[in-house]
Amino acid sequence: MPLTRGDIVPKLSRCLLIALLLAAVAAVLVPPVWADPVQIDGAGATFPYPIYSKWFSEYNKLHPDVRINYQSIGSGGGIRQLTAQTVFFGASDGPMTNDQLQGAPGKVFHFPTVLGGVVPIYNLPGVDAELKFAGTVLADIFLGKITKWSDQAIAKDNPGVNLPDSDITVVHRADGSGTSYIFCDYLAKVSPEYKSKVGVATSVNWPAGIGGKGNEGVAGLVKQTPGAIGYVELIYALQNKIAFGSVKSFDGEFVRASIDSVSAAAASATAKMPADFRVSITNAPGKNVYPISSFTWILLYESPKDKHKSRLMVDFMKWALTDGQKFAGDLGYAPLPQTVVSLEDAALKKIKVE
Amino acid sequence: MSTTGPLGRSSGEGRLFPLLTGAAAVLVPCLVAGIALVLWRESLLSIREFGFAFWRTSIWDPVAGQFGALPFIWGTLYSSLLALLLSAPVALGIAIFLSDLSPHALRQPLIFLTELLAAIPSIVYGLWGIFVLVPLVRRLEIATPAWLKGVPLFEGPPLGVGLLAASLVLAVMMVPFTASVAREILKAVPSAQREGAYALGATRWEAIRMALFYGRTGIIGAVMLGLGRALGETMAVTMLIGNNPRISLSLFAPQYTMAAVIANEFTEAADPLYLDALVEIGLVLFLITVAINALSRVLVWRVGRERTVRAGRPVPAAAV
Within an 8 Å CB–CB cutoff, is residue A222 touching chain B? Predict the structure, then answer.
């Protein structure tokens, strides 16, 4: 008997139903034959993402039973997700505030992992010399008070440089960013006016200039706009071979940012390191210390629910703080000084593990 | 098994089909209501804190916890409306040329190329804007004579990025949407209309004007479709507009839009009030988009009612 459409349609759907049922039964009854590695989820800062992903993949090679999964969604997002306990660890370029710590369901520890610096970049046609900036001058430029490159305040620190009479175009980050946090943190330390008018945060109410998205946005705008000044991460400037200026340190010398001068900032801060590592190391004293430097942190609960994961994570942290540090230089990060590593080792012992 | 009708329909299917399609139709209003509800709930802190002042104040300071959306509303509306003014004449020109004037051999390639514009991702538009458009705009700004610089519309330093650059790119992005819908509208005008005009001795231009008049409701719809695209555009705009929340009349000034500030600041917003203020910006954008769409509906409806001869229903765009 020939089949009509009416016969075929129910037959097809019956076949489909049976297939689906079989699949469901199979999924329930047949256990997976492979053993799952333990997966630890983290989220947060984008700035350390290149080194974190390197660490996690290298560590997975050494310990195939541990897989660490990191989403670089931004420091703010990392803190939010850690507080909501949707991730096991968070990562941030700025330390959590007291309010944020109190809002978390458990005690949170900060662990510095590597260091980064922020450098001023500029576009001045006809000027080849590396410019020198005092912190107060940078603050006044970003406040919109110094508007010409020929301003006496800039010229004073750059003798012999023929500065043009052109307007300064300030370029800042448009997106919320740890880079802005570090930069503002430094400017607020050297300029009381900057501190009261602008303040320190990942996004601020910029008094002057235009905003670019990401390091590449700021660098692109500076490169295109004659007379522009902006700021980017040291890594970004190094990798893209962008010329940058040196900045006056706490001790009064003009220091060029480098992996060594950024590491030196951490070493200089060790003496006054608070027990929770929530410390700003911008404008740190000492010889050859680059003033716009900062730690980036991994955030861990003191007593997480899953103590097994906690032990695996602490093991990873120990590795990252010792063997892991050797990957830092190649990727443009400054490694932690030994003094900070020993302090962190002691702090890691306080984390509850199984 | 159920009884089979003459066309192979079972009685079960007869009841199921309207039910399924009905459910699909109800799904859309439910989704819209759901979006509005979530936006409202997630921005409660900010709504309670600032109330209606959120719409009227212009200070956006995450450090001080002071949030006002006016510069973003201004930037969104200004850039979108300017883009509308720039794109609508060009898009209509394309539509008229393609439907009435173009040689046959040229038509298909031109249609293809116009619709290709709609397929370009907005980040590519943004990059093109940064590398091509912004230097051109900067040259234009530098070339602006001093007496013109005194006019509020053209004041400010020559930055290149700013409202003009963003609006130009938005206009280019809107053209394919408006043009392809307007072309379909003109194609749908019954040929008797044009033939009648010619029979009465109308010139080509008069016949086209007649066709435009006949299809005006649909053409307004086409322009509004482009506007909707511009209001929500994020990536290309944030790359070109300068991201500075200051209200200014100047075309050369950097400004900011609602979609751009959400995209830029959401990831790093850890403070609850800050986060809620950003979500409230989303709510404001949602309400403004709904209001503009409702307005365009009313406009289409009013224009359509003016004459007893009514244009056919707007033809949906092939490219959308």
Answer: no
Taking alpha carbons only, the member of B290, B234, B295 closest to residue B39 is: B290
CATH code of the domain in which B183 resides? 1.10.3720.10
Count CB-CB contacts under 10 A for residue A210.
Answer: 27
CB contact under 8 A, A100 and B270: yes
What is the distance between the alpha carbons of residues A307 and A211, in angstroms, rounded to a whole number?
44
Does B22 contact A at CB distance below 8 Å?
no
Stretch A38-65: mean pLDDT:
92
Q: Which residues of A touch B263 (CB under 8 A)?
A: 175
Is B34 a member of any domain?
A: no
Interface subset of B 140-159, CB within 8 angstroms of A: 157, 159
- Chain B's closest residue to A8, CA to CA, is B8
In a domain, B279, yes or no: no
Residue B311 has pLDDT above 50, yes or no: no
Per-residue pLDDT for A86 more than 50?
A: yes
- In chain B, which residues have their Cβ closer than 8 Å to the Cβ of A178? 268
- Mean pLDDT confidence for A72-99: 90
Domain count, chain B: 1
Give all strands (DSSP E) within chain A, no chain letters.
38-44, 66-71, 89-92, 108-122, 132-133, 169-173, 210-212, 228-233, 246-248, 254-255, 293-301
Asked if the structure places residue B106 within a domain, the reply is yes
User: Which residues of chain B neighbour A204 with C-beta distances below 8 Å?
Assistant: 61-63
Q: What is the tens place of the pLDDT at every residue in A303-316?
A: 999 999 999 999 99
Residue B114 lies in a domain: yes
Segments forming the whole domain that contains residue B229: 69-259+295-302
Q: How large is the ipTM?
A: 0.81
* pLDDT tens column, A219-240: 999 998 999 999 999 988 988 8
